[in-house]
Each structure stands twice: as C-alpha cells, then as structure tokens.
Specification:
- By secondary structure, the protein is of the alpha/beta class.
- The protein has 2 domains: about 5-110, Tetrapyrrole methylase, N-terminal domain (Cobalt-precorrin-4 Transmethylase, domain 1); about 115-225, 2-Layer Sandwich (Methyltransferase, Cobalt-precorrin-4 Transmethylase, Domain 2).
- Helix content is about 35%, strand content about 20%.
- The protein has helices at about 20-30, 35-45, 60-75, 95-100, 115-125, 140-150, 165-175, 200-205, and strands at about 5-10, 30-35, 55, 80, 105-110, 130-135, 155-160, 180-185, 195-200, 215-220.
- Strands 3-2-4-1-5 form a 5-stranded parallel sheet, sandwiched between helices. Strands 6-7-10-8-9 form a 5-stranded mixed sheet, with helices on both faces.
- The protein is elongated.
- The structure holds S-adenosylmethionine.
- S-adenosylmethionine (SAM) binds next to α5, β7 and β10.
Length: about 230
C-alpha cells in the first residue's frame, strides 16, 4: 500500500503556533521534506523531532522529486514543511502534491499558521470574498498583473518583503486610490504591527521611519458600497 503525503503547517514566527497533530505527525513520518533543511532544523530540534530530513523546493531536480514519490510508493510516509506557514501557499508543495496524486498517494493537510489569513482576519477588511495574490512579479509582468488585479472588487491579500514594501504600497495606491489598506508586519512576533488607513496615511507612516524591517502582508479592503 502507498504511504501518505502530509502537508504540515509550521509557525510563521511564534514557535507556539504549531499544533499537537503537526508535532506528532512530524515525529511519526519516515521522512520530512523541508524547503530548507537548515532552517527547519531549528524548529525540529526545538520540538525534539529526530525524523530524517531531505530538501525539497521549487528548483529540486526531477530525480530528487521522483525519489520522494518512489518512497511513497514503497509505503513510506512523508511530511512536507516550508520555512514558515502553510506549504503550497507561496511556498513549495504544488509539484509534489500533483505527482503524488498521479501515483495515487493520499494527501493529508495538517492545518496551521498562514500569514495571509492571520493578516486578513485582523485587518478589519471584508472577509466574505477575498483574492489571494501572493507576491507581485518583481519586474516582468508587474504592471500587467496590477492592471488585472485592479479589476477585482474583492478584498486582496499580497505578500511583500521589507525592502520593496514602500515601492509596492506607492504603486498599489495608484491602482486603488480610494480603498482602505492594512500593512501587517511581523505577525505573531514581538514587533507585530498593523498599520491601517488610506494608502496616503499608511505610506506617510512608513516614510517617517529610519528603516523598515520585518515581513509584510498587505490587505486591501474590498470596495465597500454604501
Ligand atoms: N507559506 C507561508 C504562509 O503560509 O503564509 C508564506 C511563505 S512566503 C515565501 C513568505 C512571505 O509570507 C513573506 O515575505 C511575507 O510576505 C509573508 N509572511 C510570512 N511570515 C510572516 C509574518 N510573520 N508576518 C508578516 N508576513 C509574513
């Protein structure tokens, strides 16, 4: 019988944000496929998880991915973890999940932290309909993507790095002049912060800072019709 492929969510900063089920699964599987074995090593050590690790990321060679599939076909169980949060959400997992499905391997999600969802619910933006946009393209296709996204009347979720946050906020402000925005910084960590307001207000706030650090989620509220 084939083994199972577990997609295990790990914390996005605060180590307490891992479930009992996630820890048990990571202890019980035969192999953990990590986006980065060194980074995940810290988490695994903290929870005294001694399961063998291998690396799996978007640039893994086909032979490497096939080796993981072969193990699953031999009946071994494998867990996938990324550097933070839910595998498959702006993180590797997609290719492995689809190859595993082709091999008739059962896929089991172990839910947990996801930066986009934590940011969304705390932002105050409408949650009835939303579109997860992840990272905007850095260069090629960026303006095309922004034009497409500007047509979406739902709440929007973007991921962004600290060195591009101001540039991205400024660009987004041109496409969404009247929408409310929340910049969510360092979720679940010591310096967790939500900067809410119009684009103008949020941009002003960040412009005043000597430096901008940390990880960001940008939430743009959906068009609120009166
Ligand atoms: N798989 C992850 C998830 O479930 O949210 C996302 C991984 S993606 C490679 C990394 C991006 O997620 C960061 O650049 C940032 O935009 C966002 N992110 C991750 N952790 C965060 C945190 N603690 N606070 C704010 N944003 C975070």
């Amino acid at each position: 019988m084939n083994g199972k492929l577990y997609l295990v969510a790990t914390p996005i900063g605060n180590l307490e944000d891992i479930t009992f089920r996630a820890v048990r699964t990571l202890k019980e599987v035969d192999l953990i496929a990590c986006e980065d074995t060194r980074k995940s090593g810290i988490l695994l050590k903290h929870f005294e998880i001694e399961t063998p690790k291998t690396s799996y990321h978007d640039f893994s060679k086909p032979e490497k991915v096939q080796r993981i599939i072969s193990l699953l076909e031999e009946g071994k169980s494998v867990a996938v973890i990324s550097d933070a949060g839910t595998p498959g959400i702006s993180d590797p997992a997609f290719r492995l999940v689809n190859l595993a499905l082709e091999a008739e391997v059962e896929i089991i999600p172990i839910p947990g932290a996801c930066a986009g969802i934590s940011a969304l619910v705390a932002s105050g933006a409408a949650t009835d309909k939303f579109s997860f946009e992840g990272f905007l393209p850095v260069k090629k296709g960026r303006q095309t993507r922004l034009k497409e996204v500007a047509k979406i009347e739902q709440t929007l979720i973007f991921y962004e790095s600290p060195h591009r946050i101001l540039k991205t906020l400024k660009e987004l402000s041109e496409y969404f002049p009247n929408r409310k925005v929340t910049a969510c910084r360092e979720l679940t960590k010591i310096y967790e912060e939500f900067v809410r307001g119009s684009f103008e207000e949020v941009i002003e706030d960040f412009k005043k800072r000597p430096s901008i650090k940390g990880e960001f989620v940008i939430i743009i509220d959906k068009i609120l019709k009166k």
